[in-house]
Design brief:
The complex is a heterodimer of chains A (282) and B (341). Chain A has 282 residues and is mainly alpha-helical. Chain A starts with a helix and ends in a 5-residue tail after the last helix. Chain A has ten helices and no strands. With 341 residues, chain B is mainly α. Chain B is built from 15 helices and no strands. In chain B, helix 1 packs across helix 15 and helix 13 packs across helix 14. Chain B is globular and about 85 Å long. Chain B starts with a helix and ends with a helix. The relative contact order of chain B is 0.14. The chains are: A mainly alpha (282), B mainly alpha (341). Chains A and B meet through helix 4, helix 5, helix 8, helix 9 and helix 10 of A and helix 1, helix 7, helix 8, helix 12 and helix 13 of B.
């Protein structure tokens, strides 16, 4: 309890990280319960009302309506769940995979397995992530699951690098050597001795990465390789609105603002957490 | 041979290993695709005997390692196969579209570095005063905005609301004709002695390269600032300060170089991000580059073209990183020593 309070004091020192926390909490809340809170829940899907198509923002439709007559505000909120899922699933797969690879390589520093694993990591880091993600997403069917898969394939090497760095510096610590001397098995050393020491660095990176994964997901969805119509996705909403600029600017501007706010929230929160835990960026 | 040469040769060797790995990944990607590649290339109406002949000719009946061997020996000779959509050689398409992209990426990647360093140094010098607050606040917003959103916003603002800059006109206005020498429009116009055309081409470059540059510039500025502040607290700075060396001299001669090196070393990675983002930014600004070509290839499932692009970008990226590594080794005497042991 005492530790929690101290951490909170340290975190809230910077007002800007509190703003991040507020934005992220609001986003999480809307992602989970948004469906039941929006003014036009049936507009999150294949709903058509041509009589109200392309209306400018008003008190009735805060962000205007799209070309099918659907309320854009409701659709933006409705897309939050998949945006959140994208970030959580990609990071929850790539972080553990990268961690295992990094720890095994770092623990066997200097041996053949270290060289092999870290070279493979380097190869993945050598491909522009968005390009390979686009290529993978295009080879497979374009949908949300495959875009998540494509981003995950590109993301784990960062965690491998991070935990490799931490592990290879812990390798010569006395408590690891003693654990080996008393005959501890490899899983014990990895999960009980090394993992707790990597955890704060990995968790901080996960919060900081959330924003980037969301950007990447929105970019794939903009390219038409994410969630398919009629389901709403921030990227595809923007790309379908571009053709109708500047007349119907609200089609693109509001989803764009939503992306910026969400990513901003996660970045501010991540910075706050990294200050609180005293872990360095990069 | 000096230690520096050995270090650089070692880096070169690793770059080759990474390239080999990259080619294996791309080859596997080509073979994951569901469906028969020969049938896909020839279309559904061609009789089976001809498809079989094609299969035999393209070595599709051989074991995978042999297929890889045939494919890679073609690639090394510059043969990436034919596009399954346009039936043109992928290599020839590259020669046509790559220069436009390179020009864009060069403008988006290199000049902004100086702004990044400047903003970073300013932020550190005015730490926790208003110039620092302004830079930090704007960097948060700018970093949170994806490159394609910048492109769309620029298009809306400068293309429609205040049409003062060219936005969807390709690389140069109608009426100018610039003979290609390097493929880089601004440079070619200058070589040909047409300053007006060079200026026009530069204006065309401005919006797309700015959309690509903003995010990584602010990211690098933030890094520079934090390294400046970190180094400013170190013992050697305290010591020189106590000896009465003026603040400006310390900043310029003792603080800047060690703080800039880490920023330079991550720039190689930023290049990858710029290439990736160029995919969408080119489509938005109607820029006739490789990314727009690749985007069409991806949507049309043109597998030879897609793999060619991924391979090409990987090679460019590996070479850039090699170059950045060498620059860092030159800049940083500590790297030279520790790496050559």
């Amino acid at each position: 309890m005492e530790a929690l309070k101290r951490n909170w004091l340290k975190f809230s020192e910077s007002k800007i990280s509190v703003i991040g926390l507020v934005i992220v909490s609001a986003f999480l809340l809307l992602a989970i319960f948004g469906k039941y809170m929006v003014p036009y829940p049936e507009h999150i899907g294949s709903y058509v009302d041509f009589a109200n198509a392309g209306l400018a923002p008003s008190s009735k439709h805060l962000c205007g309506t799209d070309l099918m007559g659907r309320d854009i505000f409701s659709r933006i909120i409705g897309s939050f769940r998949n945006t959140l899922l994208m970030g959580v699933i990609v990071l929850c797969i790539s972080a553990p995979v990268g961690f295992i690879v990094g720890v095994i390589a770092g623990y066997n520093k200097g041996k053949l397995i270290d060289t092999v694993l870290m070279r493979i990591t380097d190869i993945f880091l050598a491909i522009p992530p968005l390009v390979l993600a686009l290529a993978i997403a295009s080879v497979l069917e374009p949908n949300l699951t495959n875009s998540m898969l494509a981003i995950t394939v590109m993301w784990w090497p960062w965690y491998a690098r991070l935990s490799y760095g931490v592990t290879s510096s812990l390798r010569s610590e006395n408590y690891i050597i003693y654990a080996e001397l008393v005959g501890a098995k490899l899983p014990h050393i990895i999960f009980k001795e090394i993992l707790p020491n990597c955890l704060s660095a990995v968790l901080t990176k996960m919060t900081l990465d959330m924003g980037y994964v969301i950007i990447m997901g929105a970019t794939l969805s903009y390219a038409g390789l994410g969630e398919q119509a009629p389901k709403p996705a921030l990227g595809s909403m923007i790309s379908s609105g571009v053709k109708y600029m500047p007349g119907q600017w609200w089609l693109t501007i509001f989803p764009a603002i939503a992306i910026i706010l969400i990513v901003l929230g996660f970045n501010l929160l991540g910075d706050g957490i990294s200050n609180m835990l005293g872990t360095e960026e990069n | 041979m000096s230690k520096l040469h050995v270090t650089i040769l070692k880096r070169l060797g690793w770059a080759l290993v990474v390239l080999f790995g990259l080619s294996v990944i791309i080859f596997s990607l080509m073979r994951i695709i569901p469906g028969d590649p020969a049938r896909l290339a020839l279309g559904p109406t061609v009789p089976e005997e001809i498809v079989e002949q094609y299969r035999e000719r393209m070595h599709y009946n051989d074991p995978l390692p042999m297929q890889y061997y045939y494919w890679i020996s073609g690639v090394v000779k510059g043969d990436l196969g034919a596009s399954t959509v346009t039936h043109r050689s992928v290599t020839r398409d590259f020669a046509e579209f790559l220069p436009a992209t390179l020009e864009l990426v060069i403008w988006a990647g290199i000049p902004p570095i100086f702004f990044a360093l400047l903003l970073g140094v300013l932020g550190a010098m005015y730490n926790n005063r208003w110039p620092d607050y302004i830079i930090r606040f704007s960097s948060y917003i700018i970093i949170a905005t994806p490159a394609f959103v910048w492109a769309v916003l620029f298009l809306l603002i400068f293309g429609y609301w205040f049409p003062i800059l060219p936005s969807i006109g390709g690389r140069i206005s109608m009426g100018y004709s610039v003979p290609p020498v390097t493929g880089l429009m601004v440079l070619d116009a200058l070589i040909d002695g047409q300053p007006a055309a060079a200026w026009d081409a530069f204006l065309h470059l401005l919006l797309p390269s700015l959309a690509l540059a903003l995010g990584h510039t602010m990211q690098e500025a933030r890094l520079t600032r934090s390294y400046m502040l970190e180094n400013a607290g170190k013992d050697y700075i305290t010591m020189i300060t106590s000896q009465g060396v003026p603040r400006e001299v310390i900043n310029r001669q003792f603080l800047l170089k060690p703080s800039v090196i880490p920023t330079v070393s991550i720039m190689g990675l930023d290049i990858a991000a710029i290439f990736g983002n160029a995919f969408l930014v080119e489509t938005i600004f109607n820029w006739p580059g490789i990314s727009r070509y690749a985007m069409n290839a991806i949507l049309g499932k043109d597998i030879n073209a897609v793999c060619g692009v991924v391979l090409l970008l990987g090679v460019i990226f590996i070479l850039t990183n090699l170059l950045v590594d060498i620059v860092v080794i030159m800049l940083d005497p500590r790297m030279r020593q520790s790496r050559s042991k």
